[in-house]
Amino acid sequence: MRRLRTRLIVVYAGLILLGFGGLAWLAGGRVSEGAYEDFQLRLESQASLIARSLREEVEHLAEGEGSAGAVAQRLEAFAQESGTTLRLINRRGDLWLSSADAQGSASALSGAEVARALRGEVGYAVRRDEQGQQTAYAAAPILEDGEVLAVLQLATPVSQAQATVWQRWLSLVVGVVALGLLTLLASIWLASTLTRPLEQMRNSALRLAEGDFSTHLPQGRQDEVGEVAKAFNHMADQVQGMLDEQRAFASNASHELRTPLTNIRLRSEVLRHGLADGPTTQRYIEEIDDEATRMTGLVEDLILLSRLDAGRAERGQEWVDVERLARSVLRELEPLARANHVRLWMEVAPALPLLESSENHLRVVLRNLLSNAIKYASDGEVRLALASADDTLHISVADNGAGIDAAALPHIFERFYRADETRGREVPGVGLGLPLVVSILAVYGAELTVESEGVGRGTVATVRWPLESVTGDGRAKTPAS
């Protein structure tokens, strides 16, 4: 698990490095762009404010009434206050006045920002000055009745903006590094948190492989790991349940097979030694045939169930006369009913439609439901009712026999489960009937419900089979033979 934890930490660290590195790069670009935009807006605002402050003096100066020295002093004061170089340019584009450190080179006076200001707009440009230094220029018009009297040009080194950019970059990098370290520590903790339950699962799985099915994982967590622990515990319970079912099947199947095999062996011994007269011989032969048929039925049920489990059982496409098939199954089960002193009744609704299915599948469903009812309704009666409503075939098998305890009802569809264990040896079967019925019905989208009011109150099993494939008049074109 340490290697997994190391790999997780390396992956997390790589993702953090890439993620935060990319984030820092993108954010840094936006920071730089924002800093330069703020720098430009600040210079343009300063130029506009100074231009408005000088408007009256410039008007008087233009009319020959003001003092150029006074305007120059105000320019110098504004320049020192703002830390910039100021120039006053007349409407012809010539230098009029400037702060003490300003020079009137052609490049300074002929910039794009000056041309824009002469058109009555605030302008901004960045270019190299006479010393080759990157300098930012902002120019604002001084207006009188909408006409440009002069232009105030403000200049300052771009290094001021660059210093701001570097400060913001430094703050960003420090923040990203601190956040990255915190995230890395959280990732190390998360990797340990994730691998610790895996280590517990590995140890539990090893104990499970050794046959200790009592091992369970703690389920205190309410996240995906907790869900996995819950699923693991459920798996252990299911494996334990399957083993219990296999033991029950081995016990029940051995009993179900031992009895007919014993009967066959005893009767064959009598027949082989010629110890039976004619009528007895005939009866023994019939009994041997019945026992062989019983064992064959058990094997066929197991084969069909395995095919259904593997998804290899195909949906039948025969048109089955349900009433005819039901009467056939009842005749088949009459000997069992007589042996258990059970009376069989059948109720069929008029105009019962044909069903698109497999006759063998439907026969297995009817035989299992009816034989179950007969076995547990000793000295009672079993009623089979067939009806259709709302595009659904309803098959109901009701008995007034032993009934089912409420605690046992949720388990009757489990394989090898016997609802009445006290009668388990008296009532034939291995507990596969209802699971087999449910598996067959699932192929056709049908469902089975079993209801009982309690022990000694009888049981009602109801099948609801969709009739979506029935022809318009409810009859089949090629009914099953």
Could you describe the 3D structure shown?
This protein is of the alpha+beta class and 481 residues long. 55% of the residues lie in helices and 17% in strands. It folds into 3 domains: 2-163, 2-Layer Sandwich (Beta-Lactamase), CATH 3.30.450.20; 224-308, Signal transduction histidine kinase, dimerisation/phosphotransfer (DHp) domain (Helix Hairpins), CATH 1.10.287.130; 314-466, Heat Shock Protein 90 (2-Layer Sandwich). It has helices spanning 2-53, 55-62, 68-82, 106-109, 112-118, 159-209, 224-272, 278-309, 322-339, 359-376, 433-443, and strands at residues 85-90, 95-98, 123-128, 134-144, 147-157, 318-320, 343-348, 355-357, 381-389, 392-399, 447-451, 459-466. The strands form 3 sheets. The protein has a 5-stranded antiparallel β-sheet, with helices on both faces. Strands 7-9-10-12-11 form a 5-stranded mixed β-sheet. A two-stranded antiparallel sheet has the order 6-8. Helix 1 runs antiparallel to helix 6 and helix 9 packs parallel to helix 10 (359-376). It is rod-shaped and about 155 Å long.
